[in-house]
Model the fold of this input.
Amino acid sequence: MLGNFTYCNPTKLYFGQGALDGLKNELPKYGKNVLLVYGGGSIKKNGIYDKVVQILKECKKEIFEDAGVMPNPTTEKLAEGCERAKRAKADLILAVGGGSVCDYAKALSVSVNCEEDPWEKYYIRFEEPTCKLIPVGCVLTMVGTGSEMNGGAVITNHAQKLKIGHVFGEEVFPKFSVLDPEFTFTLPRYQMVAGIFDIMSHLLEQYFSGTDDNTSDYIAEGLLRSLIRSAQIAAENPTDYEARSNIMWTATWALNTLVAMGKTTDWEVHMIGQAVGAHTDATHGMTLAAVSLPYYRHILPYGLAKFKRYAVNVWSVDPKGKTDTEVAEAGLAAMEDWMKKLGLVMNLTELGATRDMIDGMVKSTLIMTGGYKVLTEEEVRQILTESF
Ligand code: NZQ
Ligand code: ZN
Done:
């Protein structure tokens, strides 16, 4: 049965070629001081930085910068950013980059005026913000996380070997996001396909849970089919605008809360993937790619009907003459084939992990209860071992 829910997504999107002009509508709504947040410099090489700065100047903004946000942003960087944002008296945080930059901007938003240690408050105790927030806007340059239209902010604490996401409420969602698919054309292939798998994983985490018949799962199936097709086209021709724009739009819908409405969700792949990330600092989407098939093959018997439905509705497996288990397994085999053709990382060794990290990764894995099987520590260890 479709459960009760309240749905609100307050992020305004500007999508398509030339979408950056949307900034001219949005910037006048905020005070003069803008903290421009970005990563390691890709936006300077591909010209996006110059375009953004030109519009900020046209809108008579005072620009303060917080550069060098690393993939998988850290607690140390967050502390540094809080100081910069305070000195700038920032009225708006403008994130220009991928999920790491957007997540970091949201974490800054809730941390700058927080009187406690933000890591303890938001990532260990999972409390909601009680301080004054700084509004966030995003210009997205890397597709995958859905951070452009959600309240997620994942932060890594290397000292504690933990990578944790807090999903904040609608007051922390970006006020606006600019999505121009052409801004993603300069992404290295590795990042493009990692992002594609991140999208697939978001959809599957929400799909593989529950046994009821609900509309959210049908929406997820449609998004998965679009993603699978567009990914194949983009892998052949990365500058195919139609495919890249479809992938960008799918990413947003995969994790802007819609497909989770009225149903339970799993998220165990992300918990194992984040544990791998905490120990290796590997690219998020690739950590998910390396652990997904061992995880899904492990839980398949507990969610057989849904895995069968996935095979038939998403991968067009013909069920005739096959047992339910054979159909379900054929779906995962089709997924594996698609993953290999995209060039995804299929094991943890390629991500720099070694077997002596397994115990630590098991300890860093949070156990979720919404999937088809609540894992024991031993099962997490088995799945990680099979991922090598
Ligand atoms: O730092 P720069 O130089 O910009 O380079 C980045 C980075 O090295 C590069 N890049 C981005 N746009 C580019 C580009 N290079 C060339 N051209 C462009 N147009 O790509 C690299 C990866 O960027 P990053 O932002 O780290 O990737 P992604 O978007 O995958 O974000 C990953 C982070 O998001 C979190 C992950 O855990 C990870 O920390 N997640 C956030 C979620 C959310 N908010 O809901 C959910 C996700 O499951 C995920 O956990
Ligand atoms: Zn993800």
